[in-house]
């Protein structure tokens, strides 16, 4: 029974952190977008415009919910949920502290689900999220939406392959596909983290994750100049808000996954700093990667669709396979 | 007990989803229900503690293969699809004969089979002691099952090559000629000659 209560607390807290970050992320995204482009960003609502996202939320919630007359209504309404539910599920797999911690005399794992095949589960849930966008595009019954949905589907499927192969190098080094064991494999100071030996995999994974998140410079699915807003064209009010919400939740999750796989997860960069709880380190790393995503979004122009496909298939896929082969040889030599 | 209840829930959802797949006339709804069915089957795998199998079920079937289905469905004109139904109208009657035969075969085979556990020692605890699902499956695949595994991968390779050959408009001879001489026109002439 106490196990169940702890599970409930962990689940509510972790999800609350993920969701609670979203309004602030949207605010920072706007503010940083302003700074990167020599503007000031939002200033009107609250001090330094800090209440901007709450104003946005109130606006989205109070807007009329328009469903197009000729849309496939059931699928149209379902699609935003398919996009963001898998993101939340991935959060359950991310460890935010060691296993078997003593809290008030109870042994508690500081991860919601210590899942045997966690890192592969992350890939599987990512592949489910594709449907949210593809079917949103189809159900809207709109040319731009359909093209956006198809582009997005092709984009995400292509980059998932490179991403998956980049992950295998990590699996070989950690000798496991369990997130907790991958973090354990990076114990010690920061030079034991996997981003140094797996720098190629890290670059591939990070750039592919931008494509997975459909953010600039890879947001071909909603390229404004060509497709109005892609799969989101026909969405309005809170349904549109759910897509935006899903994008930011997925960004938090993806940053957490990158931190866990390549940057030691909840571990401190120096063992001397271990007195600071792992949760703080993980959130810090997550915020760093989110900043990186925003920096890239507001700095680089969008790639053309064929360039996007070329990068995915002709550069990242061979590179990821080469990285895998080299890693496999080195790991087997070192372990013998 | 809890596992039994969960099994009943997920198994019946999977069956309901599968029924939905074959009764929907809207092919996209059918596709979504197929994804739903696969996810529920994965949940049933989870209940038997076959974590890796469950994840692969979602990743490969629900994720990769059905996304390709979704592409094909979206590129098709659904109005033409309804005409196909009329085209295959006569086959409906053959189904009435063949389906009961298939059902009878399944019942006979399932009823006649003697169910034995593959390895009596394979329990979730024993697998965990050997380093978990993924490791045990990997060691089995690359030791005892190496030949079937390699054959399956060969079949997939043949399928891939076949798809490329079918999708290519040019034949191999003209391509080789073009690559060799860099002469587009000569290659085109070869194609026209063969046509």
Please, could you describe this protein's structure?
The complex is a heterodimer of chains A (336) and B (195). Chain A is mostly helical and 336 residues long. Chain A has one domain. Chain A has eleven helices and two strands, in the order αααββαααααααα. In chain A, strands 1-2 form a two-stranded antiparallel sheet. In chain A, helix 1 (2-36) packs parallel to helix 10 (278-297). Chain A is globular and about 65 Å long. The model of chain A has no long low-confidence stretch (mean pLDDT 83). Chain B is mainly α and 195 residues long. Among the domains of chain B are: 1-79, Four Helix Bundle (Hemerythrin (Met), subunit A), CATH 1.20.120.1200; 126-168. Chain B has ten helices and no strands. Chain B has helices spanning 2-23, 27-47, 51-75, 78-87, 91-112, 124-129, 133-142, 146-167, 172-181, 184-194. In chain B, helix 1 (2-23) packs antiparallel against helix 2 (27-47) and helix 2 runs antiparallel to helix 3 (51-75). The model of chain B has no long low-confidence stretch (mean pLDDT 79). Chains A and B meet through helix 3, helix 4 and helix 5 of A and helix 2 and helix 3 of B.
Helix segment tally of chain B: 10
Task: Return the CATH architecture of the domain at 1-79 in chain B.
Answer: Up-down Bundle
Structural class determined from secondary elements of chain B = mainly alpha
Total count of domains of chain A: 1
Q: Low-confidence segments of chain A, ≥5 residues, pLDDT <50?
A: none
* CATH fold descriptor of the domain at 1-79 in chain B: Four Helix Bundle (Hemerythrin (Met), subunit A)
- Overall outline of chain A: globular
The greatest inter-chain interface is formed by: A-B, 30 and 22 residues
What is the average per-residue confidence, as pLDDT of chain A, rounded to a whole number?
A: 83
List the secondary-structure elements of chain A in sequence, H or E: HHHEEHHHHHHHH
Assembly state of the chains shown: heterodimer
How would the global form of chain B be characterised? extended
Q: Give me the count of strands of chain B.
A: 0
CATH class of the domain at 1-79 in chain B: Mainly Alpha
**Relative strand content of chain B:** under 5%
Q: Helical proportion of chain A? A: 55-70%
